[in-house]
Amino acid sequence: MTSPDILVIDDQRTFRFDAVYARDAAQGVTLLDQHAWSEVWLDFDLGHGTDISPVLHHLEQRASAGRPVPIGRIYVHTSSPEDGERMVTSLGRWYQVRRVLAHSYLAPA
User: Fold this and answer.
1) Residue 22 has what DSSP assignment?
2) DSSP for 36-102?
3) CB 39 within 8 A of CB 9
């Protein structure tokens, strides 16, 4: 059985599609570099006073060095409009990014 090629970095949501989950930024950075991802889903607030900033920094740093992380598309699903727009703007320079509403993809409770 092969591992899903979708990575979700979110501290609590689970989606209705098959994915690999990182529940904090450190785990997200580690998983990003393991292989190519068809999709990466990003939340801003990762709980306990932390956020997605280390992941964004990693993605931007790799791309600006000419070695972008191989990702088909990034989906920004944070519920914070301001943070979501900042994420789309900063990552959109190097990656295909789309803003989506998380509740449209949540797994049934």
Assistant:
1) E
2) -EEEEEE-SB-STT-BSHHHHHHHHHHHHTT----EEEEEE--S-HHHHHHHHHHHTTTS-EEE--G
3) no
CATH number, domain containing residue 28: 3.40.50.2300
Query: pLDDT tens digits for the chain (109 residues)?
Result: 567 899 999 999 999 999 999 999 999 999 999 999 999 999 999 999 999 999 999 999 999 999 999 999 999 999 999 999 999 999 999 999 999 999 889 988 6
SS3 26: helix
Residue 109 within a domain: no
Whether 40 contacts 74, CB under 8 Å? yes
Identify the domain containing residue 98 by its residue range.
6-104
List the structure tokens of 47: 């709980």
Number of C-beta neighbours around residue 74 at 10 A = 23
Measured CA to CA, the distance from residue 80 to residue 84 in angstroms comes to 6
